[in-house]
Design brief:
The protein is of the alpha/beta class. It has a single domain, classed as TIM Barrel, CATH 3.20.20.150. Helix content is about 40%, strand content about 15%. The chain contains twelve helices and twelve strands. Strands 1-12-9-8-7-4-3-2 form an eight-stranded parallel sheet. Strands 5-6-11-10 form a four-stranded antiparallel sheet. Helix 8 links the parallel strand 7 and strand 8. Helix 6 runs parallel beside helix 7, helix 10 runs parallel beside helix 11 and helix 11 packs across helix 12. The radius of gyration is 20 Å and the shape is globular.
């Protein structure tokens, strides 16, 4: 943290490069809490409890609609998490960031009927079962491409920063299994899914949170024949408006949204305000980047272009009360599974929550 940023934190003003603000931090205690989504084994839960992490998203119960997705199976999962003094705040649906390649029947995104109707019926039943098991939220992706990256680059202390440079990305093979997916086709498939799923989520009072497309691609070209319609702020605005429901919102990956912007250090705060003030942020991946649209590195939270202190203040300002999660930590030599990098991120998040809670 440089002197300019330190003075900004100490005085409650936001001082980004070339910009001055006299706005004061929001008053009162921050409502958000540290969370995670990467490991829900008993061993990991003991460590998280020691870190003071009291809310989590579990790992995927099962990639198929089986006994682990039954009311009994989900209840056992919740009770096991709660035995460590931690709340099971969210569970992932089997719609991952690389859904097309990981699962045998990804017909929801391939748009094949009646197969996709059967898959959607399974998703709806998972929502019903989660509600009956006392699980208040689910997260998911509607992603064909997966998380696309180019060669990693050197970061602080010689670690590796995950990197994406569109000009260096090999589009080989030129098409995915889904073939050419235009904006119009992708929106049809998304809308078809939401029109059937969101009414069930609303009936059973389970919030469902969708992750943006990571990364956004050129709007006129896409990538490997796929147009990433959830890879822009305008696309996310359209997405949350398709179904008017308090149970339909975003797994708001701050890093992914920053990747959509030409100047994330300036622009991200108003994006948080837009979705946060509309109560469309159900979960936050608190990740920083260096760079901009089509050319970025994923950094440690204190080593990117976004003032994460101010970001946390904005979540407080809009009254966000969900989880703030570490995500996509850099790779450090000898740090198996990124455990040390994640521990650093948890400490950073806990400190910022404590700091903004004491302001005003």
């Amino acid at each position: 943290m440089d002197r300019r940023t330190f003075l900004s934190a100490a005085t409650g003003t936001v001082l980004l490069e070339g910009q001055t603000s006299t706005s004061k931090p929001a008053q009162g205690k921050a409502l958000m809490k540290a969370g995670t989504q990467h490991d829900s084994t008993d061993e990991a839960l003991r460590v998280l409890a020691a870190f003071g992490v009291e809310h989590i998203c579990s790992t995927l119960p099962s990639a198929k609609f089986d006994a682990q997705w039954s009311v009994e199976g989900l209840t056992r999962l919740r009770e096991r998490v709660e035995s460590h003094g931690i709340q099971l705040h969210m569970v992932p649906l089997p719609l991952s960031s690389n859904y097309i390649t990981r699962y045998e029947s990804p017909e929801i995104l391939l748009g094949k009927s009646p197969e996709r109707d059967r898959e959607i019926d399974d998703i709806c039943q998972m929502i019903r079962n989660a509600a009956q098991a006392g699980i208040p939220a689910l997260k998911y992706n509607l992603n064909i491409l997966g998380v696309v990256r180019t060669e990693p680059t050197r970061g602080r202390g010689g670690c590796q920063y995950s990197t994406f440079v569109y000009a260096k990305a090999r589009q080989d093979p030129p098409m995915t299994e889904a073939g050419a997916v235009s904006d119009e086709v992708y929106w049809e498939r998304i809308t078809y899914f939401l029109k059937r799923v969101i009414p069930v989520a609303e009936e059973y009072k389970v919030r469902v949170a969708c992750h943006p497309h990571d990364p956004g691609m050129p709007h006129d070209q896409g990538y490997r024949g796929v147009h990433t319609v959830l890879g822009s702020v305008e696309g996310l605005k359209r997405f949350v408006e398709i179904q008017a429901s308090p149970y339909h919102g975003l797994n708001f990956c701050q890093g992914t949204v920053s990747e959509m912007l030409e100047d994330p250090g300036r622009e991200i705060f108003d994006v948080i305000r837009y979705f946060g003030s509309r109560r469309k942020i159900f979960n936050v991946h608190f990740r920083n980047i260096r760079g901009h649209f089509l050319d970025f590195q994923e950094t440690f939270p204190d080593d990117g272009d976004v003032n994460m202190i101010q970001a946390m203040r904005v979540y407080k300002e809009v009254g966000y009360d969900g989880m703030i999660m570490p995500d996509h930590v850099p790779k450090i030599e000898g740090d198996t599974g990124g455990r040390q990098a994640f521990a650093f991120a948890f400490g950073y998040i806990q400190a910022l929550i404590q700091m903004v809670s004491q302001e005003g």
